[in-house]
Specification:
Elements (H helix, E strand, L loop, with lengths): L1 H9 L6 E4 L2 H11 L8 E5 L4 H12 L3 E5 L8 H7 L4 E7 L11 H10 L3 E5 L11 H4 L3 E5 L11 E5 L17 E6 L12 E5 L3 H5 L6 H17 L1 H21 L4
Parallel strand pairs: 2-3, 2-4, 4-5, 5-6
Antiparallel strand pairs: 1-7, 6-7, 8-9
Length: about 260
């Protein structure tokens, strides 16, 4: 039920979602599933991305990836800068849909179009978007997205979501092995088990959970999300966004008069 509600909130399907520990865990799983840095090539990102991701991509650069950092002008990243930076060697474009630093929101669909034209994949950190701005992941064309639940989803630390576009699942390398991936398990080693070849008969699920799930996760946070996601869907993210626009307009008008940019 939690997956179904989150899928409705962000424009996805439950099959495209796996539970993860955090946004960073989801980002790292996506990188691993693309076999980076093993495949080499270029990563294009920007300095409005989550500062915790700076460490990820600087380490990948040390391991042989070419990492291109786009820098903002007047607090914004022009999508044309991404279009210029993405080339045939680009493996991954990584960004925060809404920046944790200043709230800038990317034109994600345009960036995805540019990346896909060169065969690159796109990851979006959506922790500052899910639950606070209208979002349709299918419409953007994004390949991966991740978020924890302790911000606008009103959950807590320890549980989040990784979205993987369904048409991409069978093209990815399994990044980790966890028993929550299993759809079938029948052992042959314990008392009263049926005999069989090997230690167990096992098969993974055929959805995102089957490719990315690990082990035990926070069921307490899942209970929180069962309530908060229902409340967000009933209230409507569009109404939440509309309610804050007059407040933002007031700030945009009044702050420059006080000498702030």
């Amino acid at each position: 039920r939690v997956k179904e509600r989150f899928a409705r909130l962000v424009g996805a399907s439950p099959r495209e979602l796996a539970f993860v520990q955090s946004t960073t865990a989801g980002e790292q799983l996506a990188i691993d599933a693309l076999d980076l840095p093993g495949r080499g090539g270029r990563i294009v990102t920007d300095t409005l991305h989550f500062f915790g991701s700076f460490w990820i991509y600087e380490q990948l650069a040390r391991r042989g990836m070419e990492v291109v950092w786009l820098r903002p002008q007047d607090g914004r990243i022009d999508p044309a800068a991404y279009e210029r930076a993405i080339d045939g060697d680009t493996r991954l474009v990584s960004l925060s849909l809404v920046s944790t630093y200043n709230g800038f929101e990317h034109d994600l669909a345009r960036i995805c179009d540019a990346a896909h034209a060169h065969g690159a994949r796109v990851y979006a950190d959506i922790i500052h978007a899910a639950g606070t701005v209208p979002l349709d992941l299918h419409a953007t064309g994004v390949d991966f997205a991740a978020c924890a639940s302790y911000k606008w989803l009103m959950g807590d630390f320890g549980l989040g979501f990784l979205y993987v576009r369904e048409g991409l699942l069978d093209q990815l390398r399994r990044p980790r092995f966890g028993y929550y991936q299993l759809a079938r398990f029948r052992s042959h080693v314990y008392p009263f088990d049926p005999p069989g070849d090997g230690v167990a008969d096992m098969a993974a699920r055929d959805d995102a959970e089957g490719l990315f799930a690990m082990g035990t996760r926070s069921h307490a946070v899942m209970a929180q999300l069962d309530w908060t996601l229902a409340a967000l869907l009933e209230l409507g993210v569009e109404r939440i966004a509309q309610a804050r626009m007059p407040l933002l307009a007031r700030l945009h008008e009044a702050l420059p008069a006080k000498g702030y940019r």
